[in-house]
Amino acid sequence: MKALVIWSIYIGDTNIGLIGDSIFQIYDDNITDEYGKIYCYLRGNHVNWLDEYEEISKTNSTSTAITRVYAWWNNFSDTTSSYHNYSTGIVSYDKNLLKYIGIRFNEDILTIDQTLIIAKSIKLSSAD
User: What pTM, to 2 d.p., does this model score?
Assistant: First the structure.
C-alpha cells in the first residue's frame, strides 16, 4: 500500500492548503458507508476528513465530495498548546483506478462557489 503523499498548495508565497493522493484497497470491515471504506486511510491520528461529507458528483466507479476536515493536535506535556481546526476539503476517488485525492484548504480561503468549481473539475486518470 502506497502511503498518502501530501504537498502544500501555494498562491505566490501564501500557503492556502494541502493536496494529497494515494492508492487504496476497499476496506471491508464494519464500515457501512462506501466512502468510509475508501477513505479510511485519511482518518489519521490527528485529522478526520469525513466530519461532514456532501457528495457533489457520482458515477458507478467515481465520487467527489466536499467535506469538513477536522484537525487536532494535543501537546500532552503542555495542554495550553493544543490545536483544533476545521477547514474545507474535497475528496475524490475512482474505484477502477483504486486512487483517491484529498484537498484541504485553509479556512476562509475560498468561497463555497469556488470550492464547488474546483470539486466539479476533478477527473482522476491513469498516468499513462
Answer: 0.78
